[in-house]
Amino acid sequence: MRRETYPGTWEFRDRSAGDPGGFETVVVPHDAVLGTTRVDDVRQMASGYFPGGMWEYRTRLFAPPEWRDRHVVLEFEAVHRSAAVFVNGNLAARQRSGSTAVTVELDGLLRYGAENEITVEARADRDARWYTGGGIIRPVHLAVGPKVHVPLDGVVVTTPEHDAEAAVVQVLTTVRNLESGPVVRRLETMLLGPAGDVVGMDRTRVSLPADGSAEVSQRILVRSPQRWSVDTPDLYRARLQLMPQASGADGQTDVSEVGFGIRSLHLDAERGLRVNGQAVKLRGACVHADNGVIGAATFAAAEERRVAILKSSGFNAIRSAHQPMSTAMLDACDRLGMLVMDELTDVWTRAKSPQDGAEHFSEHWRSDLAAMVTKDRNHPSVIIYSIGNEIPEAATRSGNALTRDLAAATRALDPTRYVTAAVNGALFVMDGATELEPELLGDSSLDPVHEINRRTLSLEERMSALAVTDVVAELTEEAYGALDIAGMNYQDARYELDRTRYPNRVIVGSETFPTQIDRLWRLVTSNVHVIGDFTWTGWDYLGEPGLGRMHYQDDPPGNQALGGYPFLVSFAGDIDITGERRPASYYREIVYGLRAEPFIAVRRPHTRGRVMKAAPWSWTDSIPSWTWSDAGTAPLEVEVYSDAPEVELLFGDVSLGRQPTGSANRYRTVFSVPYRPGRLEAVAIRGGAPAERTAVHTAGERRRLALTAERPLVRADGRDMAFVVVELVDDDGVRATDSDVEVELTIDGPGALQGFGSAIPATEESFTDLRHRLYDGRALAVIRPSGKGRITVTAASAGLQAASVELEVG
């Protein structure tokens, strides 16, 4: 069977309080939370002060009479959360998880030759430590096929043997018979190469009992295979036809198609991770599921844009934190060449948030795990499954047993990938599992874990000191023994220690502090058994507000670890929620050895003279700008990042001196520069001579709005979107970062606003409004096409001439 996008129209109403009123038409995927009013309530802090709710969706599906002899499946990739699906008023399916598919077999539930009402109910409130959104947040599919068919996700493709000359592609296909009698079918499997040409084929007979199923194995040889890798993401497709045994025989043909890649994985403590025999270090980014100004609604274009920006910023791996990755993002990782750590959950049996479903984990973990693995196991980008994140009970006897069960079940579903868990040893001692010397804890207590974010933040860098204790080593030993890779959150102090203590252990930094990437990457590259580093976090996200905000020694007493209302975003990402790279991203690229040009970041004037406190998720409050109308007369602090031994800073043609940089100086230096409008240029000095250079310029006094469509041609397929950057610039196109004017959008033509906003960390503005204030002179508008034609997007602001951009929808 093949998935098709559900063609019907969806209606929606909010049932959170009182009379829900009438329904309104919405486009699915849909985030029911994003447009709601935020509340100044500390209980809603984790979600970015968005409240929960209860929501109802409905649609009408006409079932033709011929469907009576067909098999019909309605699939919701994700409904957040506690979904209930009704067909003509009858309960058809429930799903507690907010990221596991809800699959409804409609046979016997439909009225044929008539319309059928399908209703979906969902609710969410304080059920995660970050923003999750709510409602039907991922795509809905309809699949219609014969009674004898290949079920959805019923094809598994592996490449057990391959070299430069040939590859053996094994296709395991489940064939299902819903007929009342036995049947015979012929299965034809055709392999298509990256160019679309036929590169292999096999046919076989399949006999099926009444109301039964069978698994068919086909091994097909492919000559001169093009192997999938990060640098060469070549993809193949398997196209399957299940047809009557002989021409003219009774029965309908069922068609299925699945993508795959030909590649091998090897892993050991002496040679590390190898893809197709080549050593690979994972330059990883932890990434939450929300997509900034469009919230939790998952559209293919937005997911592909994220993957493309992350890869162009130097990452080659993504960890889905902390839920299974969307199919759209996995497809993008396959196409663009990005490795994936696919994570199951943030919670097992002990709650981290009041309504996170921990009490039901024992009942449904097997089905949730199976849903993730069967959905994702044909994606060549997926190389590691993580069975959990920072599970505090993992050090207990029952937790160790559950670790073994989860790992074994994962391997049974897919023996071709590796299994890990993101373990934070500090949580084991915070949970009262043992006693430690008081000096290791500082001012932190060892009360049982209730508010896990607050406890983790209170320890911050002491997590490394805890990690190297014998107690934590012993507590984590059994859990790590059940895994293929020891995932370590903030336990980098153990990397070299474990090389001798556990010589066969392979380690990945599953979550690390972004401010320490220079030291962390040196540990990764100098230790073969450490296969990579995943920073928290690659892309900024909604909720967990203010995690990465700047802390100073002169902050008011009682300053909270997270940001108070109206803080909205984490502010810990290398890339902000609009997709713009922050200074930390360029620094990381230099540390990775992927950027030779220096980078300039200027600290905001209000930070001048203030001493930053240790905040391991916080970068300095700096941006790549030399436009500071509020600079005053005192010098500004100018950061320069470079891998060169030293850099020279120039104002115009005048040298402001040379200072050492490079690895010995943590790839950075700081110049003190009085502000004057002009050009500030940094030059890398190599071998005593000028080399690569970069510059920032002051924006002129004449300002205008500028709209730039990242892709001016978009498709009207329900999956594509247009991303329009709105900026305030001078006549030369230099962005004016010192005047964050309010902008109002107008959209003419076959398109609608999906989201509009800036990367400002604290605001009461809504992403669903057509009016928003720029931040550092920039905002992002996301436009959803509603049909073919031309869309004109216009931005206006008081005192400025309106600006427009045109989009072609084909």
Automatic annotation (TrEMBL):
The entry's keywords: Glycosidase, Hydrolase
Residues in Glycoside hydrolase family 2 catalytic domain copies: 273-424
Superkingdom field: Bacteria
InterPro entries (alphabetical): Beta-gal/glucu_dom_sf, DUF4982, Galactose-bd-like_sf, GH, GH2_Domain-Containing, Glyco_hydro2_dom5, Glyco_hydro_2, Glyco_hydro_2_cat
Record domain DUF4982: where: 635-689
Domain Glycoside hydrolase family 2 immunoglobulin-like beta-sandwich: 155-263
Domain Glycoside hydrolase family: from-to ranges: 705-806
Record flagged with keyword Hydrolase: yes
Keyword Membrane appears in the UniProt entry: no
Family from the record: Belongs to the glycosyl hydrolase 2 family.
PANTHER family referenced in this protein's UniProt entry, alphabetically: BETA-GALACTOSIDASE (PTHR42732), BETA-MANNOSIDASE (PTHR42732:SF1)
Name under which the protein is recorded: DUF4982 domain-containing protein
Species of provenance: Microbacterium ureisolvens
